Amino acid sequence: MQNLEIRSKTDLFLKLGRQWAVIFLFTELVFFSLMARGFLTLNAFQIIFFYGTAVFLLATAELFVIITGGIDLSVGYVMGLATIVSAKLIVAFTNSGMNSLLSIILGIIITLIIGLIPGIINGFLVARLKVPPFIATFSMLGICHGISELLISERLLKIYLILLM
Fold first, then answer.
1. Do 81 and 125 touch, CB atoms closer than 8 A?
2. Exposure of 110 by Cβ count < 10 A (0-12 exposed, 13-18 middle, 19+ buried)?
3. Do 14 and 94 belong to one domain?
């Protein structure tokens, strides 16, 4: 009888152990709904879906990379670079007198091309030159971060241009 009780408790712990993510998610849901007043409101869910879309899209793309046995460390920094380039292009096009809609469309097209370039370079390094994906994408992470920093801080860009001349 006692052996049966131990076995049933072990089976219960095994079943709960397999569902740890669901239990953790439920625990978080209960905790934050008790701690924050507006946590379970429609407005909160709309904000989460609105701001989580970019992360969801990046995670979906990264899922396919991980499923195939690779890794891409640069995906977030490529997105950051593309965002900065997009904002700068749209502002520059609009300030030059271009139609707002046309400047947004042109900015998006150029930004997509800018976002493809690091991916093509990473793919070439990994597939053709047999560079390990960790090294190739970590290097691209640094390159995209550096370019983003240069684009954001025009003061630094002016200093670098003075040093290059």
1. no
2. middle
3. no
Q: Alpha helices of 36-132 — where are they, by DSSP H?
A: 42-67, 75-95, 100-127
**Residue span of the structural domain in which 121 resides:** 71-165
Q: Tens-of-pLDDT digits for all 165 residues of the chain? A: 556 556 666 776 777 777 888 888 899 989 988 898 888 889 988 988 898 898 898 899 889 888 988 889 999 999 999 999 999 999 999 999 999 999 999 999 999 999 999 999 999 999 999 999 999 999 999 999 999 988 888 766 666 666 666
pTM value is 0.71
Same domain membership, residue 139 and residue 86 = yes
